């Protein structure tokens, strides 16, 4: 069975600092990988996705993630965060080829301080 | 571009009442998923439909049922509501391909 581990439940960071949100997955098959952002009292917005091809994926709002198959990781990075990036971030997987349900990690709360 | 529509956006019910949540997928998306997100929790898969047939089932209570209609919209019916059913309920739709497109969610509060 697939599972997703987000290693940090909360990440505090100062504005304009770089940030990395960590995500590891376990799966015996290939997976599709996603990062979603959820602002307070709002829905889920797709930040970026890895389906195939280049392991470095660029998303919206200056975020990027790198798929590392050997380490089964898909860490999210941003070189300089803004106050407006304060939100909950969810890593999620789908076994490739199955188009099945998304399996989410527990989420990481990114808190950007001035 | 058209997005996934969910109605109502907010719903307040009392214990033991019934609730119906509706989801209108993006046109030409043939698969619909339902997820439940409790307070401070990650979204959990409930059920999905492909071409109006149930395609997968997660940890959905027996008190809940769902269906997808001929126009591809879906309804989640919840009976004998409990306080623990208070959550944000998301619908997502998918065309051919892996990416799911999420609606804004319905916030259900059970008092």
Q: What would you call the shape of chain A?
A: globular
Query: What is the alpha-carbon Rg of chain B in Å?
Result: 13 Å
Q: How many strands appear in the DSSP assignment of chain A? A: 12
SSE order of chain B, as H and E? EEEEEEEEEEE
Oligomer: heterodimer
Give the uncertain stretches of chain A in residue-range form.
none
Helix content of chain B: under 10%
* Helix count, DSSP H or I runs of 4 or more residues of chain A: 0
Strand content of chain B: over 45%
Percent of sequence in beta strands of chain A: over 45%
Q: Which structural class matches the secondary elements of chain A?
A: mainly beta
Task: Quickly count the helices of chain B.
Answer: 0
In total, how many beta strands of chain B? 11
Question: Residue-averaged pLDDT of chain B, rounded?
Answer: 94
Our measurement of the CA-to-CA distance between the termini of chain A, rounded to an integer number of angstroms, reads 41 Å
Q: Greatest contact pair? A: A-B, 22 and 23 residues
Based on helices, strands and strand pairing, what is the structural class of chain B? mainly beta
Low-pLDDT residue intervals, each spanning 5 or more residues of chain B: none
Order of H and E elements of chain A: EEEEEEEEEEEE
């Amino acid at each position: 069975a697939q599972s997703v581990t987000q290693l940090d439940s909360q990440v505090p960071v100062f504005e304009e600092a770089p940030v990395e949100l960590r995500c590891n997955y376990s799966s015996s098959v290939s997976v599709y990988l996603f990062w979603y952002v959820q602002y307070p009292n709002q829905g889920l917005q797709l930040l970026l996705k890895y389906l195939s091809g280049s392991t470095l994926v660029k998303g919206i709002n200056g975020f990027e993630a790198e798929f590392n198959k050997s380490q089964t990781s898909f860490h999210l990075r941003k070189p300089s965060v803004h106050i407006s990036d304060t939100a909950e971030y969810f890593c999620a997987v789908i076994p490739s080829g199955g188009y099945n349900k998304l399996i989410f990690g527990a989420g990481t709360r990114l808190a950007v301080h001035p | 571009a058209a997005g996934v529509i969910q109605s109502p956006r907010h719903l307040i019910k009392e214990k033991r009442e019934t609730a119906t949540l509706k989801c209108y997928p993006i046109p030409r998306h043939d698969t619909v998923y339902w997820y439940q997100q409790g307070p401070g929790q990650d979204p959990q898969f409930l059920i999905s439909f492909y071409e109006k047939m149930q395609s997968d089932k997660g940890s959905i209570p027996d008190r809940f049922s769902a269906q997808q209609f001929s126009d591809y919209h879906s309804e989640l019916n919840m009976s004998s509501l409990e306080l623990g059913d208070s959550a944000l309920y998301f619908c997502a739709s998918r065309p051919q391909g892996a990416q799911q497109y999420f609606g804004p969610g319905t916030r259900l509060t059970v008092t």
